[in-house]
Amino acid sequence: MFGIFSIGFVSFSSAQEFPELGIKVETVAENLKIPWEIDFAPDGRIFFTERIGNLRIIENNLVSEPIISLKVSGSEGGLLGLALDPDFEENHYLYLYYSYSDFFDIYNKVVRYVESDNKLFNETILLDKIPGSQIHDGGRIKFGPDGKLYITTGDAANSKAAQNLDSLAGKILRINSDGTIPEDNPFPNSPVYSLGHRNPQGIDWHPESGILVETEHGPSGERGNAHDEVNVIFPGNNYGWPNIVGDETNVDLINPILHTGDDTWAPSGSVFYNSDKISEWYGKYFIATLRGNHLRMLDLDLENNLVISSNVLLDGEFGRLRSVNMSPDGYLYLLTSNQDGRGAPTHNDDRILRITPLESDMEKGNSSLSPLKQLKSGILPKNISCKEGLELIFKINSFHPACVKSESIAKLVDRGYSSSLD
Description:
five-stranded antiparallel beta sheet; Neuraminidase; 4 helices; 29 strands; mainly beta; 2 domains; single chain
């Protein structure tokens, strides 16, 4: 497993403060070419992919030259997913997911390298011929708490493939770190873990229950628009695409725990916050949104398939957000995606951003309290309110606020929530 992680040598630019959230956002690197995924080595190095085919490193500062540049297919495909092996400190295995052209066809593959001194050696293909397209290539790879490698694949613009168990498209896949198929996969001799996905993006596991949650882009065209999804994933389940969308039901298909209705978030990378650095965020599910231009924070009751609260953070502040991940020292990192042809890039896009808590008021010599700190002091701040039809409740041990429907309050009492600060 990972050892001690230290990022003390990484340089940061001046921070932008958000007192209402109790955080500041620092720029770690800028002027990047569509960064897509980020991961962290135990020695403090930061690895990240650029969709144009580059794997790059931040070591003290951004290393100017990529450690590898792959020939990739373009549009929504390219060099996408990245994961470091849970035993990276010992084996230095690094995994990539990327799109490539084979004559007139586009495919995706998962490969493993051995990293040494910022160079890659011994490419091993673990999974190949994953259907690809100019759109809907999935691309997230991440190790689960069981030590298996999970892979999201899009339907590659062929919606019927998502329901076909003989196709790797429109699925969440699960393999061993050497590319073999785990014996306990739900379908014999198949890497398929779940099916019926349109374009799955973010995946992560709740830090206590170990339940897997996924984000997914909703439809456009003949099945309507929007209805982006957050799904609770269990092995062998069918999540319905293209047979059901939104609130449509089928006895054999699984509905999302949340869909966006007529709004389009274009949810991308996601992570459960598993740190005490910002204690009120512990256990919350964070989603980077592309079209939404914000960081979404969800409080999920996974046992009862219930969304307790859904909050927008950093709305419009940094444009399109492609990925969010948590470093071993407990801070969130964001990747912007304003150079992908659908954003409005500024002079220093794209960027890698780091979220850290603001200094305490005593450290800053400032007696004014943010709304969140007022809550922790037992004071109800004037500028925290809920939309019509929702009621304000609080987590008793942290005073974390949430806006919920009245009929949900009774269900939340046993989970440590109260509608009163008394």
